[in-house]
Design a protein that fits this description.
Blueprint lengths: L2 E5 L6 H13 L4 E7 L12 E6 L1 H12 L5 H9 L2 E5 L10 H14 L2 E7 L7 H13 L2 E4 L2 H5 L6 E3 L19 E5 L3 H4 L6 H20 L3 E6 L6 H9 L10 E5 L3 H10 L2 E4 L2 H9 L4 E5 L2 H11 L5 E2 H6 L14 H11 L4 H9 L2
Parallel strand pairs: 1-2, 1-4, 2-3, 4-5, 5-6, 6-7, 8-9, 8-11, 9-10, 11-12, 12-13
């Protein structure tokens, strides 16, 4: 049985949780290992081919001390001793943050010391410096394969080992169409202010929350059940929902309920049962496309714009500023769907997110 160490963003984020589930389901004869904080383990404890290594305060303390000394994390240093194959799966994992040089060093160390190193499902940027993109040009040249989820990222790198395919979530089984479709609208929310780390978007976040509150009241008054959905509590979605619910009229509160993702099957059922989705979260749009549900995509970052532009060949998303200006009585005009033929193409092509891993498997049967 082939053993792979896999890293990703394991903090009860619905999109990333699905990444890990899809990876384990696709390769049932592989044994995957990952490092995870104990509070996020329950969701994955039933996956038979996944071994979870618990992070703890001792490990975090060592790594904090190591970082002060500019030493790589201990799990990175030890990983090549125990594993020959490594998968990094995630979306916005190549952002030029303040620690970008340190993160690049980790990846360069693994590229040098791991036999097979794959990157799946990502986009590239935003970035500012040529040194950043040049560093990753060199990294992608050295590893076994990188697959982006948007053409913009792919076109930055003219390398044989770099490819592009639709988002990993399109690999998720659609299952049976819901027989219990409800008069329900699910609204995924986001804390743009927190994501921007306290910059000028604070006022925009207030206007956004006011608009989502107005939309919720509008649909509740039309008899809809409104689900305000947190995809990731860790990133502040729950706090946004709490603020939105503060000024909901009492007579409408029974139509509006918060939901915080903790369980994959429950979260997916809520999405499937909806007959409309307003998607502040990137993967709320992707899930709506996959399940054939009308969706209003809200682009809080370029990654959403790029992927949706790739799917439709034109602008089918609304920025937060644009959302704020939409009159409530016109909001239904902004929902979009992917045509069935195009969706089937996306589903088939999304398998290519795993093309480099599949190629290695075929060669080593």
């Amino acid at each position: 049985m082939q053993r792979y160490f896999v890293t990703g963003y394991w903090r009860n984020n619905l999109g990333d949780d699905l990444f890990l589930q899809i990876l384990c389901d696709r390769y049932p004869h592989f044994k995957f290992y990952t490092l995870m904080d104990k509070e996020y383990i329950n969701e994955f404890s039933k996956i038979s081919n996944l071994v979870i290594i618990k992070s703890n305060i001792f490990l975090r303390s060592i790594n904090k001390f190591f970082k002060i000394l500019n030493i790589l994390p201990i799990q990175i240093l030890l990983l090549p001793i125990f594993f020959k194959r490594y998968i990094e799966i995630g979306g916005s994992i190549f952002i030029q943050g303040k620690d970008w040089k340190f993160r690049l060093r980790q990846r360069q160390f693994l590229a040098k010391n791991i036999r097979e190193y794959y990157i799946v499902g990502s986009n590239f940027g935003p970035y500012r410096l040529d040194a950043f993109i040049n560093g990753y040009q060199n990294l992608f040249n050295r590893i076994s394969g990188t697959v982006f989820r948007d053409k913009y990222s792919h076109n930055l790198f003219k390398i044989d080992q770099v490819s592009v395919a639709p988002d990993v979530i399109f690999n998720l089984s659609r299952g049976q169409k819901s027989e219990t479709k409800k008069k329900q609208i699910t609204i995924s929310v986001i804390d743009v202010y927190k994501k921007a780390k306290g910059n000028r978007l604070k006022e925009l976040q207030k206007q956004y929350e006011k608009k989502i509150r107005s939309i919720s009241i509008y649909y509740a008054s039309k008899g809809y059940s409104v689900v305000l959905m947190s995809f990731c509590d860790y990133e502040g979605d729950d706090n946004v929902i709490t603020r939105i619910c503060l000024d909901i009229p009492i007579k409408l509160k029974k139509f509006i309920r918060p939901y915080s993702h903790k369980n994959l099957s429950v979260s997916l059922n809520i999405v499937k049962e909806s007959d409309k989705i307003i998607a502040s979260r990137f993967h709320a749009s992707i899930l709506a496309f996959l399940f054939g549900i009308p969706v209003l995509p809200i682009a809080y970052s370029k990654k959403t714009e790029d992927v949706i532009n790739d799917i439709f060949g034109e602008k089918k998303w609304q920025s937060i500023n644009e959302l704020i200006k939409i009159p409530l009585h016109n909001i239904d005009d902004y929902f979009v769907m992917v045509k069935e033929k195009s969706l089937n193409d996306l589903i088939n092509e999304s398998k290519n997110q795993f093309q480099f891993i599949d190629r290695y498997v075929r060669k080593n049967k």
